Amino acid sequence: MMTQCAGAPMESMFKKLTKEEKNHLARIEEMYEDVYLKDN
Length: 40
What we know:
By secondary structure, the chain is an all-alpha fold. The chain has one domain (11-40). Helices cover 65% and strands 0% of the residues. The protein has one helix at residues 11-36. The longest helix has 26 residues, at 11-36.
């Protein structure tokens, strides 16, 4: 959706949301690894 809004007034909002979501996914992945992939 961000690419479809290029040049539109909401473009910066979608860029910010994309960045936030990438950070969110990275935190979820780290949490998953800490909880489920611990070395015994």
